[in-house]
Structure formats: C-alpha cells, structure tokens
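Q: Start with the shorter request: fold the first protein.
A: Done. Sequence, then structure:
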Amino acid sequence: MKRRLVYLLSFVLLATGIGKFGGAAYIHAKAGLAQVLLRAAWAQTLANASPQPPWPGADTWPVARLRIAPARIDEIVLANASGHALAFGPTHVSSSANPGAAGNSVIIAHRDTHFRFLQYLSLGDRITVQTRDGIEHRFAITATYVADSRTALIDYTTPRPRLTLVTCYPFDAVQPGGPLRYIVEANLIDDLSASSGLKITSTSG
C-alpha cells in the first residue's frame, strides 16, 4: 500500500507538470502513467482473485488485461465505461458479456490514446484477454468496419464468445467526438472453425 501511494504521488506530480506543456501532451502522459498504477492493481487482483482499486478513491478497477503480440500492445482494461474511466485506459461495457464468456464482450477506448493502434490491426491477428481468474482467452480478428453510432447497434447476445473493440473514427479527426465508430470484431480461437470464415466488412454508416 505504501508503494502504491508513492506511485500515486509520482503520477500526480508528473501529470501536473506535463499538463503545463499543453493539453495533448497531458492527455497522453495521463493515459500512459495511469497504466503503471493499473498494472500494480492488476497484479494484486490476480493474487487476491478480487477487484483492487488502482488508487485511493478510484471509482473503477481492473477487470482484464488485453495483449496483442504483433503490435506490442499490453493494456489493463477497467470496469465501468464512463468518461472518467476512459481517461485512464480501455474500459469494459458492463452490460456486455465478460471476456471469454458466451456473448459479446465490448471494450471501448479513445482513438488518440489507448485504441489508436486499432487502425493497424489486420484480419487474423491474435488478441489475448486475461481475466482476473488468471485464465487467458485467445481471439482472432474476423472483421473490421466503420459504423454510424446513430443507427448501428452492437449485438451483445452472440451465441459464441466474441470480443468487440470500439473507438471513435476517423483516427486523424481534428475535433473529438462525431458519430462514426471504428469496430474490430474477434472470435474465440476455438470457435473459428464454426464461423463462416475470416472476412473484412467495411461500411460507412
């Protein structure tokens, strides 16, 4: 606990200092530094098999670890897909399935920080999600597409385990927000033989 407080103090001081150099730099530093605290909380979560807040007073906690080897991605996923939690890392939509369980597990993050890498993923890339019981669930990307959030709906009740990663689109947008979303769908490796095959679906609303 003492070490966690030291990390927290360092995080606050560094983030505050970097904030003076500009909003964009501050946002990236905040997202990156938060992952240091989140990794410590995730280690405790695995050890205790129960949720561990990343810092005192946090209203979110780590629920999974997301890794993509080719892209060198290693992110801690937080509970509660709120704007506050999104500032610190990818977040799990609580109304969707848990990773690896039957149904569609939906994880969202900002396009300019933690999910910027989505644009570089390819069909068939492997994604590993570790849950707090220590089990690793392996998925393969089966589709990527752009959808309009005003009309498109994500099905949470897929018969087999699915992982869906969502971020805003386009990635190089000057202004944040907008209705378009970039979506990456991946099926559990064991279920790929039951799918209709790998394919890319591309729509614009």
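Q: Next, the second protein, separately.
A: Sequence, then structure:
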Amino acid sequence: MRVFLIVAIVGALAPVSATAKLTDEQKLTLLRDLTSEYGSAQVIVPRSKKPLEIRPDGAFDPQEWGEALREFGPAARLGDMVQITKVDFKGKKLELEINHGIKGGAKWWHRIQVSGGANAGGNRGGQTLGQASNAPGGTTLAIVFEDEIPDKTAEEFLAILKPVLNFDERSASELYLEQLEPEMREAIEAGEVREGMDRDMTLLAKGRPDRKVRDFKDGVETEDWIYGKPPGDIVFVTFENGEVIGVKHTHANLGGQVRKIEPVKR
C-alpha cells in the first residue's frame, strides 16, 4: 500500500507535456503538405547560416534578423515569391528550408515583384531592416515552440508564418504565364490541368490541393494531388518526376463511393 501511494504521489507531481509528440505518420503528412509550397515575402527575409527563429505568434527578433541581413543580404525582398524546399523536425523546432537554403540559387520567382499586402515597416519592434544589394537566395526558418512541436495541420503552420510569408496568394502568376506556351497558358487561365504540366503550372491552374498522396510501385514514385472532397466532384492529378502524367475526374457520393466521370474532350 505504501509503495502504491508513493508511486501515485510521484506520478501526480511529475510534469505533464503540454503537447503530444507528433507521430511518424503525422510528420510524413506534414512533409508532403508543406514541401514545395509557394508564398510571398511580407518582410525582408535575410539569408542566414543558422535557422532564423519565429515564435508561434509569428513574431521574430529584429536584431537577429538585422545582423543576418547585414552579413549575408536578403533571401527575399518584399513581395518576392519563395518556396519551401525542405522540412525538418528538430525537437521543439519545425525547420523550413526556403529556396534550398543559404546555398540556393536565384530562381524565376525571385525576380518577380508582386503587389499588395506588405507592411512598409516589415518587422517587429519598430526596427527597420535595411535593404542590402545581394541577389535574393535562400535561408532556413525555424518555428520555435515552448515544448514539443504541436499537432497542427500544414495550413495552421503556414498561418503562423503569415506575418513573414503569405502562402494564401497565388502571386506572380500573370508574369509567369507570359513565359508559357499559348496552349498551356490558356489551360491555366481556364483552371484546367493537362499532361505535361509541372507543379508550378498546376498550382496556378487549381491552387493548392486538398490532399497529397505519394505511391512507390515497381521502382517508380508518383504523387497524386487531390482536389475536392465527397460528396462532389474530385480531380486526381498524378505527377512523376515533377510532371503531370495523368488527370482523372471522379465523383464521390456520400459514404465515399466514387464513380468515374469521363474526361472532357479537348
């Protein structure tokens, strides 16, 4: 009886974690849903050798960011498009590599400016981050939590980043469309996905998918982007090596039953 009471008292006094640990399945889902997402910079984001920390309320240390900016220059200026290229789980930190990190080269979206939304101040604490002359590149951001990384959806983590990076806008689309072949441009403007498109074109045509599912069969890895939820029309866009190899339209009834819809003739 005494042993039982001691164990009970010790158990009652032991600290309880405020958040449950992410499971391997949850981490895999976040990897799939966050990787390759595009957003536009709402502040000047510095390049940095070590991850730039962001608190769960979206705030950051302007002194730390200012020092990184003076040393390495910007990874993205106000309105520049960026892409999450790697996701990592480091204890209480969710690390997001942007544009392939500090060694990443400039891409087409770095050269395109977009309008709207950005605060001229661009940071917390009233300190202005000076504009540097370095060409935009990449960096790594770390959302830092008090305890474990919480169980949140990809959308909820992206919402935390909104003061720094806005992932809600389909920015730079008009200028990007001008670089495409007329057939692909017309399809994107009509909200249509076709075989031969890449992920960028698909995002412009239909936005972010409701789900992403990867499959590995016979040595070949494919990824399905799924648009729509039952009951209603659902579109499966299948990628292989970053290119659309198939588009399937279906209809899901109540209870998840799916009936096939013949593709529209073009």
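Q: Describe the second briefly.
A: The radius of gyration is 22 Å. Residues 75 and 136 are 4 Å apart (CA to CA).
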